Amino acid sequence: MLAQCNLSGMYSSGRVPGEGRDVVRAHMWMLLAARGGDSVARVSCEFASRRLRPAQRARAEELAQAWQVEHSGGVA
Predict the structure, then answer these.
(1) CA atoms within 13 A on the CB side of 2
(2) What is the spatial distance between Cα 32 and Cα 4, in angstroms, rounded to a whole number?
(3) Cβ-based neighbours of 24, under 8 Å, separated by 6 or more
(4) Tens-binned pLDDT, residue by residue, of the chain (76 aa)
(5) φ, ψ for residue 66 (rounded to 5)?
(6) Does pTM top 0.85 for this prediction?
(7) Cβ–Cβ contacts within 10 Å for residue 58, how many?
(8) Rounded distance, CA 23 to CA 15, Å?
(9) Which residues, in sequence order, are CB contacts of 61 under 8 Å at separation 6+?
């Protein structure tokens, strides 16, 4: 979960090598950390969610869901 939070911060600030700033991917990683039980990530998700457009929130949700399915043997 800590790694997911850190990766979220890196996407949010544009520090992922080879990638630009990506608030959708940042939110996706924070969602995953929150779903994993990180209480700080849960609060951060709620705050960040208010700053995203509905389409951005929806895309982050889709990406998080796809990641969970891919990394859980097909069960999200």
Answers:
(1) 0
(2) 7
(3) 52, 56, 59, 60, 63
(4) 889 999 999 999 999 999 999 999 999 999 999 999 999 999 998 998 899 999 999 999 999 999 999 998 766 5
(5) -60, -40
(6) yes
(7) 12
(8) 12
(9) 28, 31
